[in-house]
Amino acid sequence: MSDRARTILDNVFGYTDFRGQQEAIIEQLEQGDDALVLMPTGGGKSLCYQIPALLRPGTAIVISPLIALMQDQVDGLNLLGVRAAALHSGIPYGEQDQIQEDLVRGEYDLIYVSPERLLTHRMLELLDHIQVALFAIDEAHCVSQWGHDFRPEYLQLSILHERYPNVPRIALTATADQRTREEIAERLNLSGARFFISSFDRPNIFYRLAQKRNAKKQLLDFILKDHAGQSGIVYCLSRRKVDELAAWLQNQGVAALPYHAGLDTETRSRHQHQFQTTDNLVMVATIAFGMGVDKPDVRFVAHMDMPRSIEAYYQETGRAGRDGLAATAWLVYGLQDVIILGQMLVQSGMNQAMQQLERQRLTAMLGFCEVTGCRREALLGYFGELREGKCGNCDLCVEPVSTWDATEAARKALSNVYRTGQRFGVNHLVDVLLGKTNKRVKELGHQSVSTFGVGKELSQPIWRSVYRQLVARGYVTVTSESHGGLLLTEKCRQLLRGEETLELRRDRYEVHEKITVGPTPQLNGENAELWEDLRALRMKLARERDVPPFQVFSDATLRGMMARMPETPDQLLEVSGVGQFKLEQYGEAFLGVLTRSVQENP
């Protein structure tokens, strides 16, 4: 590793040490070799190509799938004094022409483009006339046809290796299992690249999941109790639900905005800008909002419906706590989510092989919801990463769930599925077990089956829980073709024969205690007053420059100032996140606030 890399890290980006495998990755690219990087969101992927871009001669070309993501990166680099620009459809034609002229003159360190723009004849011709320092392919999992964010344009990026064989390439992603990693390497011609696989763990995120009971009230209680006045993202499955929930939260006094593909472009852009530039806004959204979010101080990500896979859940929850401070991943779920997602899958037009894979992923996600041990252990295990012992930073470690011997109940539930014809949903099956003689039971003649009324010892919610967990454990499957009907699987034979026993978890709808986790110090008295003063100054400077507050300084950097209480510019430079360029821009103002605090509270 050259001394220049450490100098850039310190002077430009304001950090004294590299994290994890950053140093080795930068060295790989600096030497002109290829790399495939798997690093969790917030792990510092961008530095892995931004520093080599400043080390190597020429201009780095960064391929990114979303305009918002490109623009955030460019704005942040410009605030650091780095010469960066983006070429995309949101930029006026005259300005695009000027950027391209400046690019040919070698006036940029980095240029961000979409895969569609990169593959145009004009752009490739332009690259033929400049010195390319490196190619960085961000969100590389988009190349995988088996992945959850497939983008067909990514398949054509293999042209980079063919057309520019001597230019190093780096492919980066935060979410890729073994199969997806292999596909990325194959389709991008990166078989000779060195793989850098970091831990999937996000230790600052607290994972909390519960069954749905009154989802809106559960969400409001969570926000007001744990994250009042903080930024967060709430995901819903449908646009209608997004609009309704955003309006409801506003009526409850929570600052919230909707975001989905049904809104016009201007409204979506305005809402995203408000979210980026405000400290206390909740964005209620479909998953159309996400990949372009480069906001480090999102304190929670909440799911009102179960995600379609663990990969999707991991990527979406990874948008919380990118600054390394404490954050929460909150989720409520129910069997109805599985039914709706299954129906969406049938209507998707996917081939049968893809549908089968997606069903397996959906079942794995439900299984993750229903675990009885450590959430983090189960999550990391899914990605092939073994963890020993409890994490102490998830709901099941803090408040272990109780279990019960459900062997006999499960046998009754499975027999009931068989006796009624393996085509009915949970509501009807539970009615039969409870011996209800309603209209539907009579019409179907199910008051005459042997399982009618055999389950009166348990309540309706418990029977619903039994069926949901039987689906999660793979004893029955949900058939979307029959609107949520249950079908027995081969796995249930041993249980029905009495050859195995079964422990199930007791449902828990709420976590009653407020849980404070992670490296966030408690603020009170003068501490809290200084914190608000620093945030107010940051907001003022951000508004003057029309940039998100975190691009001035992150929360972690403000807390670093409070911990060190620097009195001179040199001391302020020692705070992580303060580089030479930002010191010159903002140092005097922030030192003024810190000095005044010391004078007022000696």
TrEMBL record:
Residue intervals of the Helicase C-terminal domain: 215-365
UniProt keyword annotations, A-Z: ATP-binding, DNA damage, DNA recombination, DNA repair, DNA-binding, Helicase, Hydrolase, Isomerase, Metal-binding, Nucleotide-binding, Zinc
Catalytic activity: Couples ATP hydrolysis with the unwinding of duplex DNA by translocating in the 3'-5' direction
Location of the HRDC domain: 524-602
EC class (word): isomerase
Range of residues in the leader sequence: none
SUPFAM superfamilies: HRDC-like, P-loop containing nucleoside triphosphate hydrolases
The keyword Isomerase belongs to this UniProt entry's keyword annotation: yes
Hydrolase keyword on record: yes
Limits of the Helicase ATP-binding domain: 26-194
Entry GO MF terms: DNA helicase activity; hydrolase activity
EC numbers, comma separated: 5.6.2.4
Cofactors named for this entry: Mg(2+); Zn(2+)
Gene3D superfamilies, A to Z: HRDC domain, P-loop containing nucleotide triphosphate hydrolases, Winged helix-like DNA-binding domain superfamily/Winged helix DNA-binding domain
InterPro entries with a match to the protein in the record: DEAD/DEAH_box_helicase_dom, DNA_helicase_ATP-dep_RecQ, DNA_helicase_ATP-dep_RecQ_bac, Helicase_ATP-bd, Helicase_C-like, HRDC-like_sf, HRDC_dom, HRDC_dom_sf
Domain of life, source organism: Bacteria
The family this protein is said to belong to: Belongs to the helicase family. RecQ subfamily.
Name of the molecule in the record: DNA helicase RecQ
Native source species: Parendozoicomonas callyspongiae
GN (gene name): recQ
